[in-house]
Amino acid sequence: MTGSHAHHLGIYTGSFDPITFGHLDILRRSRRLFDEVVLAIGRNPNKEAMFSFEERVDLAKQLVRELLASEKEGAPIRVEHYAGLTVDYARSVGASAIIRGIRNITDLAAECQLAITNRQVAGIETVFIVTGESYAYTSSSLIKQIAALGGSLDALATLVPPPVVDALAKMRRDPTSALGRLARDGLAE
Predict the structure, then answer these.
(1) Are 28 and 64 in contact (CB under 8 A)?
(2) Is the pLDDT of residue 59 over 60?
(3) Is 31 a catalytic residue?
(4) Which helix (H) or strand (E) segment is 39 a member of?
(5) CA dihedral in degrees (25, 58, 67, 136; nearest 10)?
(6) Catalytic residue at 47?
(7) What does the domain layout of the chain look like in residue ranges?
(8) Which of 15, 23, 30, 56 is catalytic?
């Protein structure tokens, strides 16, 4: 391209159920790689959702606002949710790449398979960002297990931002919430 600059849009996809400090770490660092970043909240059909789409979007928007207010440098971020295949969503927003966080070799193996498939099927690249060492053992599934099985929500404060701890506490007080169902049905694994 001569005289013009391509707009590089990265989409950071996941269920973000709930969003963790590890997710925010990847999001923060992805701002230096792209002209714009979308935190794209999808549905994983293999997992029981604890928070609704609306709750996850609201939490993510609040945390993104806080991140952007505290760190002025880097690309803008917007929060969206989508249904269906990630590659279809990526094409619909004109993404240059899908951003994926890698915590360990197990993540890498699974994500490489998806990245190769996404490139072959949809022509979309994947950018891997290795999470900060403090977040290497954090996962949304682990957070759900701890919360559903009666673990200390205060102890989760090192893994998830305060608004997530508050939302988990509210859910725990409501026996009809998804957190209550996960605990009752044993689906927090």
Answers:
(1) no
(2) yes
(3) no
(4) strand 36-41
(5) -10
(6) yes
(7) 9-137
(8) 23
Query: By C-alpha distance, which of 78, 77, 127 is closest to 102?
Result: 127
Plot region of 123 (φ>0 → left; ψ -120 to 50 → alpha; else → beta): left
Instruction: Output the pLDDT for position 132.
Output: 84
pLDDT of 62 higher than 60? yes
Selecting among 47, 65, 91, 173, the annotated active-site residue is: 47
Phi, psi of 99 (to 5 degrees): -95, 130
Q: Using 50, 70 and 90 to split pLDDT, how confident is the model at 46? A: confident
- What are the helix and strand counts (H, E) for the chain? 7, 5
Q: Is 103 a catalytic residue?
A: yes
Q: Which fold has domain 9-137?
A: Rossmann fold (3.40.50)
Q: Is residue 161 a contact partner of residue 19, using CB atoms and an 8 Å limit?
A: yes
Establish whether 140 is a catalytic residue. yes
* Tokens, residue 46: 């293999």
